[in-house]
UniProtKB/TrEMBL annotation, chains A, B:
More info: Reaction mechanism of ThiL seems to utilize a direct, inline transfer of the gamma-phosphate of ATP to TMP rather than a phosphorylated enzyme intermediate.
E.C. number: 2.7.4.16
Gene from which this protein is expressed: thiL
Positions that bind Mg(2+) 5: D213
SUPFAM superfamilies: PurM C-terminal domain-like, PurM N-terminal domain-like
Pfam families, A to Z: AIRS, AIRS_C
The protein, known as: Thiamine-monophosphate kinase
Binding site for Mg(2+) 2: D45, D73
Ligand binding (Mg(2+) 4): D28, D73
Organism: Muricoccus pecuniae
NCBIfam families: thiL (TIGR01379)
């Protein structure tokens, strides 16, 4: 009996990604001996072709983005990566070349982030490709960063730069000049999960989450979780040189950067007295961290200040699927 | 700031399914303290509307089928359920009523099988609904059932009945007389994960897997894993009264039952000396177990005997997505 095509596909493209306990992806399930003295941290994110990535994105970056958006959830909890499971629903016409690129991207990121695949499923779909990944990480028990816990007066911090992902999508869709090989498009296709910073601010950050659906919308989650308000200062938003150039040419982009998605940066709260510690953690991990506002007593609403220091209304509430 | 629709949907339909460590499905990830002294068993299976279930299947059974096909993987490893994560990619037009039924079905099966949801993601898709579930179970370390390990001379066992799922699909598609409320259609929509039998034969079964893509094809996996051949006796196939009636009316159905999918029964190997133990485990768990053949020295091929005891060729190799 030869292998049916579905299993030959798994053997050819995915078996090389399997790690300890994955049983060569040829059993009904995988085995995992939980690391002693650690708590597990688990999250699952899905991506749909044409919704979360563009149909002509390189398959290498699609696999890596799928892994990285999930790694970003681990970063937000201050967790370290351990393993993942993945299901792929693929159109029947998916070529071996596409699969090869997809798996090669995953292999590269497995090396970069130190984790491996444990198991999953590969099925066909008459619709667009639909990818789902469950990530497993670990933390010392009780040390995971949570969304609740910020206090009035706390600084509001963000990692890296904001808006590159949304601008990168605009470039790739032809709504903004630029090219697919540039910084912005690359940031849309390849988010940078802030794992090192996330673990470095365990014990310092009072609340944390990752920014994926737009800074303003995600800040709303942090405020509801803590029952707090906040002031968000757009003038303080950390921008990459490429994003700064866009805003310089057309200032209307600035508020849109605070509502665009695909940032995958960490948004967190810390006691102002801990600012030196946060900055030291940022330096030690090579990850910029910037104060972009502060928390106030409730209600859970953000007051957004424009570059002139006056309160403004943001254009829309951020990305929602429904 | 009010909740955007996507998060309101999660809060309304899925928060009630969340268990300990799920953090109300409102953080970036879930926490899981691994049960001391147990090994984790993990699997992930996806289902696509129109491929794995019919668009007009009741939403209650769709959620339950998604959970049960994953629970069947745990049963095949002899594991006990602990928790799950789920991602749903849904068409934008999905109604609240559909979601309510889907979640109600999951709630019912959570109670039946003793597990809860830990986390997940809900996104939109322009294509058919695409559901993915990662299941987590536990076993005493080293006791998981595996696919390799059968020996020549071992009995080949199967749980429950074979062919109901494939016949149920034929009924629902109008290829076979019958009605949607009958036994066969119900078996297609609601597989029965054999968790109790799976744990009961730990230490007795030398190899095990679950039958999901057709008995003959899945037997092929067991044979390749063990480097063994087998004789499969179609006359011994356990049939439900409804399936037996179909075969009696048209005997050509019998070989098709050995290649149809959606059985979700356990297929396992055991020393003939352990047959009394297997039968006792079957009685104790209220799950039929039937000897349908035996293992032979390699190559990894199955010799299939028809009802007259003569070797036959099966019509096709089973379900493959590609």
């Amino acid at each position: 009996m030869s292998l049916p095509p579905e299993f030959a596909l798994i053997a050819r493209h995915f078996r090389g990604l399997a790690g300890e306990g994955a049983l060569d992806l040829s059993d009904d399930a995988a085995l995992l001996a939980p690391p002693p003295g650690r708590e597990l941290v688990l999250a699952a994110d899905a991506m749909v072709e044409g919704v979360h990535y563009l149909p002509d994105d390189p398959p290498e970056t699609i696999g890596r983005k799928l892994l990285r958006v999930n790694l970003s959830d681990l970063a937000a909890m201050g967790a370290e990566p351990l393993a993942y499971l993945m299901t792929t629903a693929l159109p029947r016409g998916t070529t071996p070349g596409w699969l090869e690129g997809f798996a090669a991207g995953l292999a590269e990121d497995q090396r970069l982030f130190g984790l491996h695949v444990l198991g999953g499923d590969t099925v066909s779909t008459p619709g667009p490709a639909c990818l789902s990944l469950t990530i497993i990480g670990t933390v010392p028990p009780g040390s995971a960063l949570r969304r609740g816990g910020a206090r009035p007066g706390d600084d509001l911090w963000v990692s890296g730069t904001i808006g590159d992902g949304a601008l990168g999508l605009a470039v790739l869709q032809g709504r903004l000049p630029g090219d697919a090989g540039g910084h912005l498009a690359r940031r849309y296709r390849l988010p940078e999960p802030r794992l090192a910073l996330g673990t470095a601010v365990r014990g310092l950050a009072r609340a944390a989450m990752d920014v994926s659906d737009g800074l303003a919308q995600d800040l709303g989650h942090l405020l509801r979780a803590g029952g707090l308000g906040a002031v968000l200062d757009l003038a303080a938003l950390p921008l990459s040189p490429a994003a700064a150039a866009v805003v310089e040419a057309e200032s209307a982009w600035l508020p849109r950067l605070a509502t665009g998605g695909d940032d995958y940066e960490l948004l967190f709260a810390a006691d102002p007295a801990d600012a030196p510690g946060i900055l030291a953690a940022a330096r030690a991990t090579g990850t910029p961290a910037t104060r972009i506002g502060h928390f106030t007593p409730g209600p859970p609403e953000a007051r957004v200040l424009g570059t002139d220091g006056q309160a403004i209304d943001l254009p829309r509430g951020g990305w929602s699927h429904f």
